[in-house]
Design a protein that fits this description.
Helix content: 25-40%
Number of helices: 4
CATH class: Alpha Beta
CATH superfamily: Ribosomal protein S6/Translation elongation factor EF1B
Oligomer: single chain
Radius of gyration: 29 Å
Structural class: alpha+beta
Number of domains: 1
Strand content: 25-35%
Largest sheet: 4 strands, antiparallel
Strand order of the largest sheet: 2-3-1-4
Number of strands: 4
Shape: elongated
Mean pLDDT: 79
Distance between the termini: 83 Å
Low-confidence stretches: none
CATH architecture: 2-Layer Sandwich
């Protein structure tokens, strides 16, 4: 394990966390979640370096019957206690569907981390409009509001074709 040089500040790790909110979450709830996470990072002695709302996107698979979610990306520097506390808070919030944390780098000097205030400003995503609401199963399968179409006639529409089918069936019975 690498030793810290004398005179250097406290050492930390860099992490990124992506969390997914319910697709119908209001702007103020999004801001409240982001604010709470920012408070947790600073309370635990870390620094939030980047915060981005990626918008409402489709999920890879349904989560709690939702097919879409609001994705939020955050990058921060701190110790392991920061990650534990962030994940504990995310578990308690009803608006959060999923989250994942990844360690990016080890051994970062906490005092040398520069934070641009523009990078940590959270911009909430607008709630979905009625046109953007999740589709029902019937609509997804094309059963609802399906356009009417003309039925195509069968390939064998002549009476002679029906006789040929009957003859073929009779021949097959005789052979067996």
């Amino acid at each position: 394990m690498a030793q810290a040089q004398p005179g250097s500040g406290p050492r930390a790790r860099e992490y990124e966390t992506i969390y997914v909110l319910r697709p119908d979450v209001a702007r103020d709830a999004q801001e409240r979640v982001a604010g709470r996470i920012g408070e947790v990072v600073s309370k635990e002695g870390g620094r939030l370096t980047q915060l981005e709302a990626w918008g409402r996107r489709a999920l890879a698979y349904p989560v709690q019957k939702h097919k879409r979610g609001v994705y939020v990306y955050m990058k921060y520097v701190g110790g392991g206690a920061v990650v534990n506390e962030i994940e504990r808070n995310l578990r308690m919030l009803d608006e959060v569907l999923k989250y994942q944390t990844v360690k990016l780098r080890d051994d970062i000097e906490l005092g040398s981390v520069e934070v641009n205030p523009e990078n940590v400003k959270f911009e909430a995503v607008e709630p979905p409009t009625e046109a953007e609401e999740e589709e029902s199963l019937e609509r997804t399968l094309g059963l609802e509001d399906a356009p009417e179409r003309e039925r195509e006639p069968l390939a064998s529409s002549s009476p002679d074709a029906d006789d040929e089918v009957a003859e073929d069936a009779a021949v097959e019975e005789e052979e067996s």
